Amino acid sequence: MSVQTERTADDGDSSSSTEADAGTSISKDDAFHILQNSRRRAVLRYLAAHDEEERFVMRDLAEEVAAWEHDTTVQQLVSDERQRVYIALYQSHLPKLDDHDIIEYNQSRGVVEPTELVDALAPYLDEGLHSDTDLTVEAESESTEAEGESITETVSALFSR
Predict the structure, then answer these.
(1) CB atoms within 10 A of CB 11
(2) In the predicted structure, residue 86 carries a pLDDT above the cut 90
(3) Does 12 fall in a domain?
(4) Helix (H) or strand (E) holding 3
(5) Radius of gyration of the chain (CA)
(6) Cβ neighbours of residue 84 under 8 Å, at least 6 residues apart?
(7) Is 94 domain-assigned?
(8) Of 3-7, 50-54, 84-88, 106-110, which gets the smallest average pLDDT?
(9) How many other CB atoms are found less than 10 A from the CB of residue 81?
(10) How many domains does the chain have?
(11) Do residues 35 and 41 lie in contact, with contact meaning Cβ atoms separated by under 8 Å?
């Protein structure tokens, strides 16, 4: 299953070629891989929150992510905090997002342009960089517990014969 957005050609017909779909869909496995890293999620969250802009300066993006990670403002960041995030985004995270057509990244110019896939992934981004919410299993209902006890009693009765 893929996350997809629809693209129409100039003549109004839907494009069905594989080449046209390459930039508008991502496999579920690739989406999970992209979303597994908190810095990539932070980048995507920032891009989605500023969807009125078409182009971002990589330095500004790195500063915002660093500020989120250190729970501070961009003005209060120290050089090492900025540099660590900048290098990781420059060398790893932004090229990976570009490889999956989620952004257009011009590394030599330091420019990031989001694609339609940012909006497709936006519903899967957590609210905060360090989310305190964990996935939990709901406690079994009383009827399920009663059924479990009943099964246990039945099995015990069979073995006691």
Answers:
(1) 6
(2) yes
(3) no
(4) strand 2-4
(5) 23
(6) 66
(7) yes
(8) 3-7
(9) 16
(10) 1
(11) yes
Query: What's phi and psi for 84, nearest 5 deg?
Result: -60, -45
Instruction: Scan for tokens 């517990």, then name that residue.
Output: 145
CATH number of the domain encompassing residue 121 = 1.10.10
Q: Looking at the domain assignment, is residue 20 inside a domain?
A: no
pLDDT (0 to 100) of residue 141: 55
Burial 98-118 (b: 16+ CB within 10 A, else e): bebbbbebeeeebebebbebb
Closest CA to 107 of 89, 129, 85, 120: 89
DSSP 39-98: HHHHHHHHHHHTTT-S-EEHHHHHHHHHHHHTTS-STT--HHHHHHHHHHIIIIIHHHHH
pLDDT tens, position by position, 94-150: 999 999 999 999 999 999 999 999 999 988 886 644 455 555 666 665 555 555 566
Q: Is residue 11 part of a domain?
A: no
Tell me the residue range of the domain where 65 lies. 28-130
pLDDT tens digits, one per residue of 18-70: 444 555 788 999 999 999 999 999 999 999 999 899 999 999 999 999 999 99
Q: What pLDDT sits at residue 37?
A: 93
CA 6 to chain CA centroid, Å, is 20
